[in-house]
Amino acid sequence: MDEDTPMPMMASEPVIPTTLCYNCGAPLVGSTLCNDCMKTTVDISQGIQREAVLNFCRDCERWLLPPASWTVAALESRELMAICLRKLKRLNKVRVVDASFIWTEPHSRRIKLKLTIQDTVTNDVILQQTFEVVYIVMYQQCPDCQKSFTQNHWRASVQVRQAVSHKRTFLHLEQLILKHNAHNETTNIKEARNGVDFFFAARNHAEGFINFLHTVVPVEVTKSHELISEDIHTSTKSYKFSYSVKLVPICKDDLIALPVKLAHQLGNITPLLLCHRVGTSITFLDPNTLQTADLSSKIYWRAPFTSLADVKELVEFIVLDIEPTGYTNGRFILADVTVARASDFSGDRQYFTRTHLGGILHPGDSVMGYMVTGTNFNNPEFDKLEQSRTYGPRVPDVVLVKKHYPNRQKKNKRNWKLKRLAVGEGDRGANEEKEKDRVENDFELFLRDVEEDAELRATLALYKQKKKDDEMSIAETDMTDGETPKIDMDDLLDDFDDLGIDDNQA
């Protein structure tokens, strides 16, 4: 083609206009901000709170779950994480990728969360961002705890009573309640005359507590109710329920005179017996033959009877001579023993009897027992027993109950302890100091029973006593009698309250 000949015109390609990022100048298509600048300038967590408040009830240790429910949640648990996430507004607009707790001081009343979220922005660009949220723990009483601090605000009450002169049965029942957590639903516990009152916010909680009592002690329950309010338009009524629970007035180690007819029904056992155990039924022991008999709660309440004497009337005796007969029943060994009263010990007045303590008694030991001869019991069943031709000549002069350790101090330093219920004190009247001393003395007697009775100890929860070094040295020298019963440290539980650890986290 000739040089002067002009070139033919060709179709030109369409020119796409180029848009530059206004922040860094990078070429863009269809947007005004590049992806890198979008990650640094766009805040997808905008509108999500950086601070929030958590409400915590110190009495029941529950957290407020919006809008109005209270739930139990341990620190740094999944339940507490769910409560924290529900407190944040607009969090449901984004996707939560990760959430974790940041450690804070336990006393700071602050809880920190580290959240990682994702969201889609312009041109389907997915952004991911991490930030922290601080929660301030505010103390607030839940409605249930507010009711517990309000006078007479309860829906059901269980009034437990026992007509005895000591509280050893109630102390045993208290330990069973603590071991099985039967008091968790109570709103208040208050001491009353001859017993304790338990208050509940709901009727079914009170009935559940009564079912527990039926499984541990023989009781008789009487129910009553009182109308609080009534809606005449809907025929809706509101009641308060009261349950009167009566415990059998018979305790461990009591001296019993059974009705003769009832003794025949229980395997023709001798009517003069010792109460060996009180559980779902009453177990009696004949110290002369080692024969045992169980009396159910229903049979007892058909024709109730009382004990001849209780542990307050025990007398100390000194063992002069003892000879086993060779007959045994479990851990009991039948033996013929000669004793004399420790108060007038001269050897002139001696008593010969049989006892079930042949395996632990030796000449020179002290033993506690009931003085039957010369004692006016003022009991019609015992009078019939003495007048009976069959059983009258077989009534012993002395009934021995348990071995005594006179060298043991009243309040020695123990390496174990028992937990107690938070019971509100009732009105003890003018003899408040005297009543307080009596309660402390009953508790000391119960602790001695726990030390001496392995079967009783197996039903309770015993905890290690945390002591200082100087207290431990005193405790080691406090027991001067080598035969004084002691509890093995391997049988004790660790008390997490003393270690500063919550039972729910342990």
UniProtKB/TrEMBL annotation:
One of its GO terms (cellular component) is nucleus. Pfam families: NMD3, NMD_SH3, OB_NMD3. Keywords: Cytoplasm, Nucleus, Protein transport, Transport. Residues 466-491 are annotated as: Disordered. Acts as an adapter for the XPO1/CRM1-mediated export of the 60S ribosomal subunit. Residues 250-297 form the 60S ribosomal export protein NMD3 SH3 domain. GO terms for biological process: protein transport; ribosomal large subunit export from nucleus. Residues 314-403 form the 60S ribosomal export protein NMD3 OB-fold domain. It is found in: Cytoplasm; Nucleus. Belongs to the NMD3 family. The keyword Transport applies. Residues 21-247 form the Nmd3 N-terminal domain. PANTHER family: 60S RIBOSOMAL EXPORT PROTEIN NMD3, NONSENSE-MEDIATED MRNA DECAY PROTEIN 3. InterPro entries: Nmd3 (IPR039768), Nmd3_N (IPR007064), NMD_SH3 (IPR048899), OB_NMD3 (IPR048898). This is 60S ribosomal export protein NMD3. GO terms for molecular function: ribosomal large subunit binding. It comes from the Eukaryota.
